C-alpha cells in the first residue's frame, strides 16, 4: 500500500468519526488531540532508550457510554528510530551497524474504563485513573539498513496489526474540557519495523555468487537479530479533549 492511498483512507476515517460525532447526541461525544513521545524496542533496541525517542501525535473522537466506559477511535502518527551506533546491545550489534528511522501511521480503537465517577455534577471528584485496551492497524514507512554491507539500503514499508494497551489519568478542567496524561505499549505482529527480519521480503540473506551464479548465504547476515520475538513501540503523552455540550449525568439522570 503506497503512502497516498493510505493517507486517503486515514482521512476518510477521520471525517467519518467527526461526522458521527456531529450528528449524535453531543453530550456523549468528545473530540481531542494529543502530543507526546514514542519509542521502539526490537532487534536494535532491547529496552526503551531515552536517547532514541521520537515525537508522536494523535487526533481522536470518543463516545462516553456511561461514567465508566468510553470508546475512543482515531489516528496516531509516531516517529520511530534506532541505530546500533548510538547504544549497541553487544559487540555483534556494533559490527552490524544497522539503523532505521521512519513514520508509523495508525488507525485504532480502544475501550477505556474509568475507575472514579468524574463526570457527574454531584460528584466531588474531578479526575479519574483509567485503563485502556484495543485493536489497530499501522503502516510504517521507513528508511534504513539491515547491516553495514546491506546491498539494499533505503526506503521500505511494513503493515501490521496492533494491540494497544495502557493506563492514564484524566482531569476535568471544565464541564466541557478534559486533560489526560497517558502511557502505554503497542504490540505489533511484525519483526520488520527495524528492517531486521527473517522474512526475505525485508531482509536478503542470500546473494548470487558471481563465479557460479548460485544463491549462497551472505556471511554478514549470520548474526542479525532475534527471530523469536516481535517489534513493539511505546508512547507517553498528554491529550486535550472537548465535549460539545454539557456532560450527561449518567448515574443521577432520571
TrEMBL record:
Signal peptide: none annotated. Residues 9-251 form the DUF6089 domain. Gene3D superfamilies: 2.40.160.20. This is DUF6089 domain-containing protein. It comes from Cyclobacterium lianum. The lineage of its organism: Bacteria, Pseudomonadati, Bacteroidota, Cytophagia, Cytophagales.
Amino acid at each position: 500500500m503506497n503512502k497516498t492511498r493510505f493517507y486517503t483512507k486515514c482521512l476518510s476515517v477521520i471525517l467519518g468519526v467527526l461526522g458521527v460525532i456531529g450528528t449524535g447526541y453531543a453530550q456523549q461525544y468528545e473530540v481531542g488531540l494529543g502530543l507526546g513521545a514514542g519509542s521502539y524496542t526490537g532487534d536494535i533496541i532491547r529496552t526503551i532508550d531515552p536517547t532514541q525517542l521520537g515525537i508522536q501525535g494523535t487526533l481522536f473522537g470518543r463516545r462516553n457510554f456511561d461514567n465508566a466506559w468510553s470508546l475512543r477511535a482515531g489516528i496516531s502518527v509516531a516517529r520511530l528510530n534506532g541505530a546500533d551506533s548510538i547504544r549497541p546491545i553487544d559487540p555483534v550489534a556494533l559490527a552490524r551497524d544497522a539503523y532505521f528511522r521512519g513514520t508509523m501511521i495508525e488507525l485504532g480503537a480502544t475501550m477505556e474504563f474509568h475507575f472514579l465517577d468524574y463526570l457527574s455534577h454531584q460528584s466531588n471528584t474531578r479526575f479519574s485513573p483509567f485503563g485502556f485496551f484495543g485493536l489497530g492497524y499501522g503502516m510504517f514507512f521507513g528508511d534504513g539498513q539491515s547491516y553495514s554491507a546491506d546491498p539494499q539500503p533505503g526506503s521500505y514499508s511494513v503493515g501490521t496489526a496492533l494491540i494497544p494497551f495502557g493506563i492514564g489519568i484524566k482531569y476535568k478542567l471544565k464541564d466541557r474540557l478534559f486533560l489526560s496524561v497517558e502511557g502505554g505499549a503497542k504490540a505489533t505482529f511484525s519483526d520488520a519495523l527495524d528492517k531486521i527480519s527473517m522474512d526475505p521480503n525485508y531482509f536478503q540473506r542470500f546473494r548470487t555468487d558471481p563465479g557460479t551464479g548460485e544463491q549462497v548465504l551472505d556471511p554478514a547476515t549470520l548474526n542479525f537479530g532475534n527471530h523469536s520475538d516481535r517489534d513493539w513501540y511505546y508512547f507517553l503523552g498528554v491529550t486535550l479533549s472537548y465535549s460539545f455540550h454539557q456532560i450527561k449525568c449518567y448515574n443521577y439522570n432520571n
